């Protein structure tokens, strides 16, 4: 798979901005969302990548920002959580709109009531929606889907998305493509080639947005119909790509600092 990594590196010849999903992309999916294991070397690798990209690194996930912080504490990268409904960039956080939160609460209550006592189904409330995981009971997928569809009646601003062993309700306005487009308007992402990396259906919006803005997508895992231009078979090969970017990209923070000093002295 070195060839695929090389091809992706060739396509990322200029300065790139990395937008990466979390579950199934940076960490292996587990039987329960809380049971994922963060690889020992991931935190340091992400810090190095952040530095090599002069901060143009964002985690874009269906998880909440709080959850990402719990798995990857003390990181400086930008985080767009809940599929784009909440974001933190450059130390500033922006939460979801109140009407989205109240609708999400109503939908979550409906789903929880419908599925109460159903073994193997895990209802995960989110600030802007709800996820029903059926990995532990694959035969109950249809039941999970039906409960969600029923809860969504009367909430036209929400829709249901199917992921890997999960159905999720989320606001129509929040998606990973919009998240990428938002960040690409601000420093240090603006002007770079966007690379969106993910493993699942919800990442397709991100792949398409990256292409629209002159970049590309990278889909991790099993071959699938995708708008990602490249594919990598597993997380290990993605880390090989990250390590190559770290080795290649000069850290220009020092020269930026020098430029700033020059500008400041001119002002004076
Ligand atoms: Mg994923």
Structure notes:
By secondary structure, this protein is of the alpha/beta class. It folds into two domains: 13-90 and 174-262, HAD superfamily/HAD-like (Rossmann fold, 3-Layer(aba) Sandwich); 98-171, Alpha-Beta Plaits. Helices cover 39% and strands 21% of the residues. The protein is built from nine helices and twelve strands. Strands 5-4-3-2-1-10-11-12 form an eight-stranded mixed sheet, with helices on both faces. Strands 6-7-9-8 form a four-stranded antiparallel sheet, with helices on one face. Strand 2 (57-60), helix 3 and strand 3 (78-81) form a beta-alpha-beta unit. The longest helix has 18 residues, at 98-115. Magnesium ion (MG) binds at residues 21, 23-25, 198-200.
């Amino acid at each position: 798979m070195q060839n695929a990594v090389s091809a992706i590196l060739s396509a990322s010849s200029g300065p790139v901005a990395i937008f990466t999903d979390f579950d199934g992309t940076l960490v292996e999916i587990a039987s329960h969302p809380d049971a994922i294991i963060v690889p020992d070397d991931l935190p340091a690798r992400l810090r190095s990548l952040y530095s090599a990209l002069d901060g143009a690194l964002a985690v874009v996930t269906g998880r909440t920002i709080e959850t990402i912080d719990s798995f990857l504490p003390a990181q400086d990268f930008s985080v767009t959580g809940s599929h784009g409904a909440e974001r933190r960039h450059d130390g500033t956080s922006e939460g979801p709109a109140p009407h989205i939160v109240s609708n999400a609460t109503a939908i979550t209550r409906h789903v929880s009531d419908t599925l109460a006592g159903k073994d193997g189904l895990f209802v995960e409330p989110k600030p802007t929606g709800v996820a029903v995981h059926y990995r532990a009971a694959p035969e109950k997928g249809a039941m999970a889907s039906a409960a969600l569809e029923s809860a969504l009646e009367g909430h036209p601003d929400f829709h249901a998305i199917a992921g890997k062993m999960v159905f999720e309700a989320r606001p129509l306005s929040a998606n990973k493509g919009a998240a990428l487009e938002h960040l690409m308007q601000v420093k240090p992402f603006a002007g770079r080639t966007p690379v969106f990396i993910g493993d699942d259906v919800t990442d397709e919006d991100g792949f398409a947005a990256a292409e629209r803005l002159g970049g590309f997508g990278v889909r991790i895992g099993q071959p699938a119909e995708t708008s990602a231009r490249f594919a990598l078979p597993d997380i290990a090969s993605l880390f090989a790509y990250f390590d190559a970017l770290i080795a290649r990209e000069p850290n220009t923070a020092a020269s930026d600092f020098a430029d700033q000093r020059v500008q400041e002295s001119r002002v004076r």
